[in-house]
Write a structure and sequence with these properties.
Elements: H1 7-35, H2 39-66, H3 70-95, H4 102-121, H5 123-131, H6 137-186, H7 208-236, H8 243-270, H9 274-294, H10 296-307, H11 314-349, H12 356-385, H13 387-406, H14 411-426, H15 430-444, E1 452-457, E2 462-468, E3 471-476, E4 479-483, H16 486-502, E5 508-512, H17 518-525, E6 531-536, H18 539-544, H19 549-552, E7 561-565, H20 568-574, E8 579-584, H21 600-608, E9 610-621, H22 627-640, E10 645-650, E11 653-659, H23 667-674, H24 677-684, H25 691-695, E12 698-700, H26 702-708, H27 742-745, H28 752-769
Parallel strand pairs: 5-6, 5-8, 6-7, 8-9
Antiparallel strand pairs: 1-2, 2-3, 3-4, 9-11, 10-11, 10-12
Length: 770
């Protein structure tokens, strides 16, 4: 069928695909507030999404063959998607504030998403039936391509245009309106396009051949989503992990699917042995995926050489580099995944006039595989065998399925399968690491491969420890987080000591983002603290802390320290404990998902978990923030903690101190506490030799912070401005570094001598900066 004759249905399904993926992107964002910013949370959302599609394809596909007006059925489905999508979004928002136990939260998130996604699962069958004829797998292929193209638009516009400019809520409204518009346009389809159903013809017997196609396409769906997660993790380890790069990865993957399906729809009708060709395409997906991984080093070198010639903003160069890497790494496999759909559709539909039932079965099998792919990769393969071994196993599995489909005497293919599987299981985990990843990763950081002292994958990130002459540092994906060099040691320990010493009588503390453990180690050195809870998202990061034992004081051996593997915000929403001190050193706020730990909503949650005299300490990384970003961080913090003060952790690291009630410093008590022998020794290691030395790190009081951020918008869950920052060259107003001790004098009644000493030390710091 000429696609020009079905322009309206194609336009309708572009809208449908746009609305569906926009819903999914926003649901993942909302679910991160409920379940935490983890691969598990994303996997649960994607699996529930796929589960709904599978259920809808299975239940609603046969219905499309029976109704007299399938266009009206489609219209009702889209109307239902708009309504239930809105209700699901509102429910997820309320769920994020409920603080339910994790299993209950997972179940409710999945159920909320399941209803609209079930309706989505029936749309392809209904619309295909409304415009279908014999040989209708070509129509199905065009619709699949149009729907995927709509998803590509959503992948770009949601995070590039809508959320940054109008916020999450209005973006959700756009998705709802898109679904309702698709529903309305479907009523304009002429009924003559629909074939009158005949129950005697609308039967699709299940043959061994079609059953094998359904099984193969189901496993292919599992492998496809598994590879997508693996490719995303790999790209994020080689490029800036910004929301723009994540959107680029998704858009390239979906573009490949759309182009592949559209380009091969006529070819799939002409081939004489579609089953053999389907198997060959699956094997080709496997082969091209493997080639892309093996050529990763050359791809990275070519991309870097090409991108650095562009005289663009560094952020634009980063996205351009990500785009080129994605196209080179998995552009061809994604295209071939799209080619597989019309072949599978032809085999599923055959010569039957029934469209809805076989298409529903095919989509159900594929999406059932899509349910298990993310769960298998996130919960099983990544933590157990690592990223590269996971990719290799998925590639081999795709090849095995292709062989199984291609050869009818499949005993021989299973012999080959057994050999390939055994070789994959016994292949050393470090093979691809040593030959592919280490050279690329280490060269980008100016390291020798043998200087990597620790490397581990978990479901959240790829974590490494590098060794340099200045000290060790922790890498999470492509970001250098922190290390035990003198500057890092000073600010990280000061994050623990400063709020503890400003508190009159601290007994409990919470550390969000454990990192190398130096802040937790400093808190452990505070004699007044009796209970310290450390929350870390990545198990691999916790395991890496043994490389920093000297810097963190062997905090794992302390009896008063408790370790929790969880998302920090998620932990705060679930616990009913109150803490005297809360510190957090999250990754840079421009990384995807991290804005959840820099928003007004998060700071309000922290405030609720403070005791009456409780104090929070927020890390502010100057080298990672431009002036607008710095103001955004401070603005959200000051909105919740109006008496906030700014302190200097090191030359390039500020510390924001907030409190539930105004801080009052008892100088004599502070001097007494800092004179405790063990604590005095620990403080001297970071250049703090007494109360004056500690207080001389003061920079600004609340009046300065409020004046500097008066016209700055507030980062919230609805307006996550920080996540969409394009700042890449840090530069700041020099007034941030100019010390104003007038705010400090209001915190403590100091003697003339103490004031003079603090002023002298502060002036010395200022001179050193100049």
């Amino acid at each position: 069928m000429n696609p020009r004759k079905v322009f309206l249905p194609l336009a309708i399904f572009v809208l449908s695909g746009f609305a569906a993926l926009t819903f999914e992107i926003l649901w993942v964002r909302s679910a991160s507030h409920v379940l935490g910013v983890t691969t598990w949370a994303v996997s649960v959302v994607i699996s529930a999404f796929m589960g709904g599609l599978a259920l809808g394809g299975y239940l609603l596909g046969p219905l499309a063959d029976r109704v007299p007006h399938p266009a009206r059925l489609y219209s009702k489905l889209e109307l239902g998607i708009g309504v239930t999508g809105a209700l699901a979004s509102a429910f997820l928002y309320k769920l994020g504030q409920a603080g339910l136990p994790y299993p209950a939260a997972i179940l409710l998130v999945a159920l909320a998403i399941l209803f609209p996604c079930t309706l989505m699962g029936g749309t392809l069958s209904a619309l295909a039936r409304a415009i279908g004829t014999l040989g209708s797998y070509r129509v199905v292929s065009w619709l699949y391509a149009a729907n995927t193209f709509g998803a590509v638009l959503a992948a770009f516009t949601t995070d590039w245009i809508f959320v940054p400019s109008i916020g999450v809520n209005l973006t959700l409204l756009i998705a709802i309106v898109s679904s309702l518009l698709a529903a309305g346009l479907a009523l304009l389809l002429p009924q003559s396009l629909a074939n009158p159903p005949d129950s005697s013809l609308c039967t699709t017997p299940i043959t061994p051949e079609s059953r094998r196609v359904f099984w193969a396409y189901g496993i292919a769906g599992m492998v496809s989503l598994g590879l997508q997660i693996g490719w995303t993790r790999l790209i994020m380890a080689l490029s800036r992990p910004s929301i723009y790069n994540v959107s680029t990865v998704l858009a390239v993957f979906l573009t490949g699917l759309s182009l592949g399906s559209a380009a091969s729809s006529q070819w799939a009708q002409r081939v004489k042995n579609p089953e053999r060709w389907l198997g060959a395409v699956l094997v080709a997906i496997s082969a091209t995926s493997l080639v892309g991984i093996l050529l990763l080093g050359k791809i990275d070198a070519l991309v870097v050489a090409s991108v650095w010639r562009l005289n663009f903003n560094p952020m634009v160069r980063s996205v351009a580099g990500c785009l080129l890497t994605c196209v080179a790494l998995f552009g061809v496999p994604a295209f071939l995944m799209g080619v597989a759909f019309p072949l599978a559709s032809r085999l599923a539909i055959g010569d039957s006039i029934a469209i809805g039932k076989p298409v529903g079965r095919l989509c159900a099998c594929n999406t059932i595989g899509g349910i298990f792919g993310p769960l298998l990769v996130a919960f099983g393969l990544l933590p157990q065998i690592g990223l590269f071994h996971t990719l290799l196993l998925l590639i081999i599995l795709e090849a095995l399925v292709g062989l199984w489909v291609s050869f009818r005497p499949f005993v021989a293919s299973w012999v080959v399968a057994a050999g390939l599987l055994l070789s994959a299981l016994f292949l050393p985990k470090s093979t691809l690491l040593d030959s592919v990843y280490y050279p690329v990763w280490t060269s980008s950081w100016g390291l020798y491969p043998n200087s990597v002292t620790y490397f581990q994958d978990d479901s959240y990130a790829t974590v490494a420890v590098g060794d340099t002459p200045r000290g060790k540092f922790l890498m999470v994906n492509s970001t250098r987080m922190m290390g035990d060099a003198p500057e890092g040691l000073r600010y990280a320990r000061l994050m623990g000591h400063l709020p503890s010493l400003l508190h009159p009588n601290p007994t409990s503390a919470l550390v969000i983002c454990f990192g190398c453990g130096m802040t937790a180690g400093a808190l452990n050195d505070q004699p007044d603290l009796k209970n310290i809870v450390c929350v870390e998202l990545s198990k691999a990061v916790l395991n890496a802390a043994s490389n920093f034992t000297k810097a963190n004081g062997g905090v794992f051996e302390s009896d008063k320290v408790e370790f929790v593997l969880a998302d920090g915000r998620n932990f705060l929403s679930r616990t009913d404990k109150r803490f005297d001190v809360i510190t957090f050193e999250p990754p840079p706020p421009t990384q995807v998902g991290v804005v959840n730990l820099y928003s007004k909503d998060y700071y309000e949650l922290c405030r609720e978990r403070l005791t009456e005299n409780g104090i929070v300490c927020q890390w502010v990384p100057l080298l990672l923030l431009d002036e607008p970003d710095l103001r955004l961080v401070v603005k959200a913090f000051v909105e919740v903690f109006p008496d906030a003060t700014l302190w200097e952790g090191s030359a390039d690291d500020f510390l924001l101190i907030g409190s539930k009630s105004p801080i009052s410093i008892d100088y004599d008590q502070l001097k007494k506490r800092m004179g405790e022998e063990k604590l005095k020794t620990k403080l001297s290691e970071i250049g703090i030799d007494g109360p004056e030395s500690l207080l001389s790190t003061f920079l600004h009081g609340p009046s300065f912070l409020k004046s500097m951020t008066a016209s700055t918008p507030i980062t919230t869950d609805n307006h996550p401005y920080l996540e969409y920052s394009t700042s890449v060259r840090p530069s700041w107003d020099p007034r941030w570094r100019e010390r104003d001790l007038s705010g400090l004098w209001g915190l403590a009644d100091l003697s003339v001598g103490a004031r003079a000493d603090i002023e002298s030390r502060s002036a010395a710091w200022s001179e050193l900066r100049r």
